[in-house]
Amino acid sequence: MNSTKRALSLDALRGFAILTMVLSGVIPYKVLPSWMYHAQVPPPDHVFNPDLPGLTWVDLVFPLFIFALGAAIPLALGKRLEQKTPLHKIIYQITERAFLLGFFAIFLQHMRPHQISNPPDTFAWLIALFAFLLMFALFARFPAGWNSNLGRAVKTISWLIAIILLWQMTWQSDKSFSFYRSDIIIIVLTNVYFFGSLFWLLTRDNLLGRLAILGILLALRLAHNESGWVQDLWEASPAPWIYKLYYLQYLFIAIPGTIAGDLVVKWMKEKDEHLSHSWTTSRMITIAGLMAIIVIISLVGLQARWLLATTIINVILLSIGCYLMKSPASSIEKLISSFFKWGTYWFILGLIFEPFEGGIKKDHSTMSYYLITAGVALFILIAFTVIIDGFKQKKALNLLILNGQNPMIAYVGFANLIWPVLALSGLEEIILSFTSHPWIGFLRGLLYTILLAYIVAFFSRKKIFWRT
Predict the structure, then answer these.
(1) Contact status, residue 410 vs residue 451, Cβ threshold 8 Å
(2) What are the tens digits of pLDDT across the range 325-381?
(3) Region for residue 392 given its phi and psi (left: phi exceeds 0; alpha: psi -120 to 50; beta: otherwise)
(4) Could you tell me the CA-to-CA distances from 9 to 14, 233, 337, 399, 431 in Å, in that order?
């Protein structure tokens, strides 16, 4: 790979996804407009309604992260293949990482303050804070030069403490440890990572084969409601707490991500210093702006259920995009053009699927949800690529990049670090007392998210990363 090129736009996309995920969890409930929450749990009661179609920005954050996870697979595994790592060893590493992700999902859910006690008491806040420090010891990969023997000793002791803590503690209502008490987001990511990695290894030189896997998955999804062996396969699981075939539907997002990752790897290997850019600065700005407009119009139109108008406007905008993508010369222009072609394909396919299953929904997720969000992920990735690699303005998105490089800390940092500190110090009550207005409450959540972003960025700059 070209050492001068980095997949920073993917880091930015992952950082954007994780920080908006955090923001969606810290904004005030019941009082903001419906587009500030998941479409199927609208205010004021937030009662889940599986028959309510729509798409909000909150519904985007999870598929954006899944797409980024898929896109990272060719980069990580491709590097190991280039290093001549034996295939069996790569499969072992994939399995090991999936195991650690599964453990992370279970441990994290048990150590959330409201799982320990609801409402949390002082003990619950202290345990949650201790759990953050323990996860730091479990998952941190320290900079080169640190004493390796000391690192191994710390991790061994930390694993023992974590297992004892899970085994001995009781949770609210005197509940004991359960494999089924887990973070569903991380469980889904575990399944998507494991099977997505194996499928990429199997089809790394066969794009048609990878698309065929999606065809098989689509057939399973359409047939599973009918009695027979497909339904039996769909419902079968040797360990329901960690695996369900249902979770693999998110490969409709992750596999498009792997295709984008392949394109990034190809771009990173190219040397185009001798090629001049054919696209003007104004064209690049227009491309980035157009991607943002498509995303915004899609969110507004699909949530408001202006389906025909949303489709027509997006087709017009995508046609403009096709014109703007003409005659790419440099490798970055070719990358952006390829992103756009695939994004348009998935997005249009999703719009066609929109009437199916009662309209687009995150829960229970529909085909249109997978495909439209895969397209949206590519459109956002294009905008970030223009800024970072087209205009060489890494600084503009550096906070997102640094958080995208350390997403595990970002994911747990509020509930297990910032929130316990605020509660134990008494600052939370003070802050809540003058942020009771709905939009001031949103501003409070935004400031919490920014604080977390800078904490994560600090660790990233120090080269201290959490990894499974």
Answers:
(1) no
(2) 999 999 999 999 999 999 999 999 999 999 999 999 999 999 999 999 999 999 999
(3) left
(4) 9, 38, 15, 12, 35
Task: Report in angstroms the alpha-carbon separations of 333 from 272, 277, 306, 374.
Answer: 11, 8, 33, 21
Average pLDDT of the chain is 94
Poorest-confidence range of 275-284, 357-366, 433-442? 275-284
Whether the Cβ atoms of residue 400 and residue 433 lie closer than 8 Å to each other: no
Distance CA 69, CA 381 (A): 13
Quote the CA–CA distance of 13 and 19 in Å, as a whole number. Answer: 10
- Contact call for residues 433 and 111 (beta carbons, < 8 A): no
Within 354-386, residue ranges assigned H as helices are: 367-385
Half-sphere exposure of 225 (CA within 13 A, CB side): 4
Indicate the angle between helix axes 122-139 and 148-168, nearest 10 degrees. Answer: 140
Instruction: Give the dihedral of Cα atoms 60, 63, 69, 74; nearest 10 deg.
Output: -110
Using pLDDT thresholds of 50, 70 and 90, give the confidence band for residue 272. low
- Print burial letters for 114-148: b (CB count within 10 Å at least 16), e (below 16): ebbbeebeeebbbbbbebbebbbbbbbeeeeeeee
Distance CA 126, CA 424 (A): 8
Inform me whether the pLDDT recorded for 9 exceeds 60.
yes
Amino acid identity, residue 91?
I
Tokens of 182: 């887990």
**How many Cα atoms sit within 13 Å of 25 on the Cβ side?**
17
Q: Is the pLDDT of residue 277 over 80?
A: no
- Reference 413, options 122, 21, 38; nearest CA is 21
Whole-angstrom Cα distance, residue 275 to residue 376?
30
Cis preceding linkage at 364, omega within 30? yes
Tell me, rounded to whole angstroms, the distance of Cα 440 from its chain centroid: 27
Residue type present at position 278? S
- Report the Cα 92 to chain-centroid distance in Å: 24
- Burial per residue of 292-326, b for 16 or more beta-carbon CB atoms within 10 angstroms, e otherwise: eebbebbbebbbeeebeebbebbeebbeebeebbe
H or E segment to which residue 314 belongs: helix 307-324
By CB atoms closer than 10 A (0-12, 13-18, 19+), residue 93 is middle
